[in-house]
Specification:
This protein is mainly α and 224 residues long. The chain is built from eleven helices and three strands. It comes from Syntrophotalea carbinolica (strain DSM 2380 / NBRC 103641 / GraBd1) (Pelobacter carbinolicus).
């Protein structure tokens, strides 16, 4: 009888990872709805499924067009896991994730170093999920959010990652409560900024940075 312990993957499922996965699922679902509401996009989607099916069939993948469509819709498909993963990889192949990672090289290497230090892949997984989320948001048609002058000022002030005190100082604000209620909370709620430590919202080391949606808003309004 084997005394081997069950395999444990070298990572911890942290609140940040769960949060990113939930947001990715939400954005992917929204993209599916947008696609279903546009005839041209529906036709392009059908052609894409057919192209993926043909390409993978040459390599021995046995999934049908119906199964590939189901995977695209986020449905569970009974099939060899490896073939399902290959299809998922192909579906996301057109997203410029690599370009976004290139723009965040310092964070990329920092995530690798932190994962090595902790002997836990969670920091690197969280980084990659954030890059995928940012790519999805940037690639998706966006409705420009209506922001208040306070939030607009916050977005134009943030440079990289900044703490609360640094932001208040840059904005010339002394009232902590007012800053939290009129600046931070609305920007976080609209997904324009994010915490660097989402699983520790009250940490003294907490900082804030723009999300892909926030950066896109600045570009759309000629601020960056």
């Amino acid at each position: 009888m084997s005394n081997q312990h069950p395999y444990q993957p070298p990572y911890t499922i942290t609140p940040a990872i769960v949060n990113f996965i939930a947001k990715i699922s939400e954005v992917t679902g929204r993209l599916t709805v947008i696609a279903e509401n546009a005839k041209a996009l529906r036709l392009r989607r059908i052609n894409r499924v057919r192209t993926i099916h043909s390409s993978l069939a040459i390599e021995g993948n046995t999934l049908s067009e119906a199964q590939i469509t189901a995977i695209l819709d986020g449905k569970r498909v009974i099939a060899p896991p490896r073939e399902v993963q290959v299809v998922k990889n192909a579906l996301f192949a057109g997203l410029p994730v690599e370009s976004l990672i290139f723009e965040h090289q310092a964070e990329y290497y920092q995530a690798i170093q932190e994962s090595t230090r902790q002997t836990d892949s969670a920091p690197f997984i969280a980084f990659m999920l954030r890059m995928i989320l940012d790519t999805l948001i940037t690639s998706a048609p966006q409705v420009r959010p209506q922001v208040t002058p306070q939030v607009s000022g916050l977005l134009t002030t943030i440079q990289g990652e900044m703490g609360r005190e640094a932001l208040q100082s840059a904005l010339g604000l002394s009232d902590r409560k007012s800053f939290r209620e009129r600046y931070l909370k609305p920007a976080l709620a609209d997904g324009l900024i994010e915490m660097t430590l989402p699983d520790k919202p009250n940490s003294r080391l907490q900082k804030y940075r723009l999300t892909a949606k926030g950066r896109q808003w600045l570009v759309q309004h000629g601020e960056r």
